[in-house]
Amino acid sequence: MFRRQVAVVASVVAALATVGAGVAVAAQQQPSAGAAAAVAAVPRPDHVVVVLFENTDYADVIGNTTDAPYFNSLAGQGASFTQSFGVTHPSQGNYIALFSGSQQGVTDDSCPKNFTNKGNLGSQLIGAGFTFKGYSEGMPSDGYTSCSSGKYVRKHNPWVNFDNVPAASNLRYSQFPTDYTKLPTVSFVVPDMCNDMHDCSTKTGDTWLKNNLDAYAQWAKTHNSLLIATFDEDNFGSVNQIATVMVGEKVRPGQYSQQINHYNVLRTLEDAYGLPALGSAASATPITDIWTTSTPQPTPTGPSPTVAPTTAPPAGGVTNPGFEFGTFTGWTRTGTTAIATVPHSGAYSGAAGSTSPTDGDSTLTQTFTAPAGKTKLTIWWKGDCRDSVKYAWATIVVKHNTSGSTATPLAKTCVANGAWKSVTDTITPGHSYTVQLTNHDDNYAGDPSITWFDDITLS
User: Where are the beta strands (DSSP E) in 249-295?
Assistant: First the structure.
């Protein structure tokens, strides 16, 4: 969309999932004698509150202290994940995936969905002697199963879809206890369609979170409990990067770059309570390095690669040239960047910019020495620029450090929903080069710009 046309104002959306159970009695807080033991790498909180917001990009939350001051405050108090992603679009599949380890074949937001005897976190907890409750704001009555009522929607309430989760676990948010010792083991809270940021602003949801769950967050830090604040998906971008923050007594504050999604979060909760991993959670890595009970890493932002490289780069060559480490190992980043599942080949690419407006340059940079026998540099790129090149663009610049010259294999370009294309530059063995992969956006509402880069090869 061009800037002089009528602006498209996209509401930032969110959906919350948290914890609580005002009807739980003290005896329900302890598991039965036969309950499974926790996996040692993940501590067992007495209570967990999971909060999911709706359809909001990572960059619209983390660092956005104007619209999300409380969320950023939480990020400073706990573990903030810089590489957290939803698993699908649209919303409903993400909720179901987080709750059951599978999308259960759901690819849309249609209602109702009904699953017979399918494994899920709620039934797992109850079966192991723990407790689970889900609380939905705006739901007209406890145990309600219809698709919508006012600002309540069933598509944001995954537990009601499973026949092995009792109706007694499906409660109105007004039942959420103010005495946090009466919370069940794990709870989800779903705000209504305004307070989850779906129909109202990011600031509205941020204020709701502060007003409703800050007291719990502060209590959790001294009562062996945990708050998880996350999102279902981004604002319908291909990168699907979201904010995820965890705050609690056994959480070591800091930024963590372990790449996670809803399955990693589910796996972590299952490990905490000694439950078998469901579906895709079985192959997901649990979150283990954020806990005070774990051994600190040399730097809290240095995770193990998600995908091990199959071969090392040649001496003097490009490190992690196709982003197949699943991280940005070898690359320096500025602005808004993410590991994306939009590859030219392999599993990953590197994304600069976002499907929501960003401000200025987002750049991936690496300096390398051309190995013997290599005379051509090839870079693949794919752009989605919804503006004009006057205001937003993708560009690739290669600095020839040894000779002092500069090449621009990709001049400033703005193309909407473009296909993968390659550019090349001539290189000299033994010479030093710095490649800069840049996406520029002017932060104008309605016409964001994002570029994916992949397969930086020398031949």
Answer: 254-256, 260-261
